[in-house]
């Protein structure tokens, strides 16, 4: 399994190679464009409603499909998660990656989540904003970075930053 530091290195390398700056909030659309990845929001069938998103090949082009009813912060995290699968796991046999709520959480899923956190909530930007705002709440930072409160809470814990 890849370490958090190796995943951070890959995120930094990806952004640098594609001339994408780290911004608050991160502009995922620019990265998708640079990578030549399509993006579509769809309503998954009722029996598929536990699927937040997937990356697949359509007409010889990689496309990320996101469940349209999801809240915007969730869509952003799922998109970043799917990019993580592409960058970290592209040589693996499985051609489609699905994020299924409540599904099996294995090493690949954890790596893709770490990738998404590093992409959407870069350590240096989280720390800078945290200290500038003088102990902001997790909600404050989640709103600033356009991520969910649970995602920001996990990131703050990972960075050993106290929050309300």
Automatic annotation (TrEMBL):
Domain IrrE N-terminal-like: from-to ranges: 61-156
Signal peptide (residue range): none
InterPro entries associated with the record: IrrE_HExxH, Rad_response_metalloprotease
Record's protein name: Zn-dependent peptidase ImmA (M78 family)
Originating species: Methanococcus maripaludis
